[in-house]
Write the structure tokens for this entry.
Amino acid sequence: MNTDSTPLSLDRASGGTGRGGFVVRQRLLDLLVDAPDTRLVVLQAPAGFGKSVLLDQWVERESRPVAKVDLSGPEGDSARLIDQLALALSDAGLLGEGTHRGEDLSVGRGRRRAVADLIPLIDNVPGVLIIDHAEALDSHRARDVVTELVARLPESMTVAIGCRTVPFEGLAVHRSSPSTLELTSDVLAMTPDEIRCLAAAVCDDCTPEDVAAIHARTEGWPAAVYLSLHAALAGRRGSGLPLVSDEHAVRTYIRAELLDALSPARRTFAMQTAVLDELTAESCDYLLERTRSQQVLDALAESNLLVTPTDPQHRTFRYHGLLRDALLSDLRVRDPHGEVELRRRASDWYVVQKMPREAARHAMAAGDEDRLAAIVASHARPLFDQGHGQTVHEWLEWFDEDGRRDRHPGVAMLATAATAASGDAVGSMRWKAVVDRHKDDPTPIRPIARVIDALTCQSGVDQMLVDARLAQDDLGADSEWYSTAVALEGAALLWKGDEAAARDRLRLGGELGERFGSMATAVYAYAALADIEMGHRERPEACANADHAMSLVDRYGLDYHFTSVLPMVMGARCATVRGDPKASRFLLNRSYVARTTLCEAIPGFAAHSLVAMAETAVAIADISGARQVLREARGFVHSQSCGALEDRYDRVEAVLSSMPVGTATHQALTTAELRLLPYLRTHLSFPEIGERLFVSRHTVKTQAMSIYRKLGASTRSEAVTSAQELGLLDASYP
């Protein structure tokens, strides 16, 4: 939502006001327009200083192509930040020729997709990238994306960031640069001359004394200036205008000057619909169980006070941020139970509109566990399997407390799978304990619990096979879990050595997974088929399945998912067969990074992926990497009693034992070092990195020194350069 808009009178604005009735801040625009030497612009000030308005006016006057990402409102999803950046750059024509909006921009869908995926697509031409309402980036990971983007964009690009709070710590290094322009509240505040211009446009009889008084009382805060001039229009001269520093007083003033002038019916309408980020006649009608909301919205818009149309047809509206804050504050005081019910109805509305993120947000705001659990049950699995893992994890975190966990076993099943898939063994086992307490409940809990049992494979491969088959017996073929049960049966058969039966189940699991949107299932199934075919020297078939699996990984951004490891490994193996050592090394290094998702929660899959990885490392003569990976595989392989995997493990071990130590050109990084590696290319200090990774400064320093040694580097930048050349930084970001 645009909380920085300071609308002026549309009826009387002239001369110094621009389109939409906003005053033209020419002195500020002169600093921004056609400034090719400025690499970073930071607009940092509280709400109501006109940051968003100024950015919009800049866009209108800028001769260079401009890409803009607005992180306010329902579209401001930090989990999809790189997607939004890619699409904005595409729409502005700043991506390379042949790169189009849509499937070619499938970067960033998973939380491990990187700025490095986006940078090569950007043309080295003059352009502007604007990120507005950056304060909405409430995670370290999303902020680090912006920091890295600023550091790595072509020098021809200017990045502008609008935010309420102090810029991210990672941008501090740029603040003293002559190529950085900072516009803070002191600069954004209106001057007496600007107030005089505005006053002349909206008030015929504003005297110089009025202007001076307004400037003194508001300290040039544009929102307060607007309110004061509104009072002047009403003949009240704004004598009671609050100081900038007193936001409570500002809300009181808004109520007195704007809201009290409304009829009781319209004030109630505004107060209740303020729970919505965007307003349409349909959403308001649904929320309030009424009709003809369009007439009320039009009337409020005509007053030029409460709502602003966001489309030319006046079908979508937004409240001014300051007014919305006041309305919501009134609602919570006057009718707290009513707000809860409105949030619930808003959640239902967004469910109907197929907007699960917004629906979940309102359910959480209402504190409605059952409603959120229903949203999770319907939408978490497909979202997760199609690359939106961070969104799902945010939902699950809301339930991650003892009382809530036990009350919602269905959520616990999804959480067990999601945390295991992301490499969080501790979290997965905690959620699995909840599933185990409910696994004997009536259907549908029981068959899905069996799928979870098969996935986590804590009782060995024989029991995994039993669980997968029992789950299929109880699940309908149209269940989103059925394809997973089929693929799990195929995996168990493969690990036991029954490759013929495994082929049939894996092929079916892949086809069903792709058909019903369980892409993570399909990815593993096709990669496992490729593994079988490669073992039988059916190389064209193996490469076709490996290519298809990797296309799904890249299309749906599944790098964060454990099922992505095997496709990368098999892709590397196929590249070797095709005589492309560069591609083989790149994909193998990418699998090294992705293997951080393999953990004790999924021992069977960890064993399979790591053994195949070691085999491929041997095939391309990365002996050090093979040894490191095989050491990690040992515990997984022997804990599962997987006959076929044990045989493969023994063969790789025998090959490695016959080779001298130091055959490889570099030593392989451990999983802990791989988790640290992406942070080395940021401007974060070791203590700051430690906070991100929940380890001590000493641990970070020790791991960093080990990385330098293994990569043959003596400095942080040299280590980053070496890692980039090896492909170790192309599939992950902090």
In short: Residues 1-21, 98-112, 236-246 have pLDDT under 50 and may be disordered. The first strand starts at residue 40 and ends at 44. The two ends are 27 Å apart (CA to CA). The CA atoms of residues 377 and 576 lie 42 Å apart.
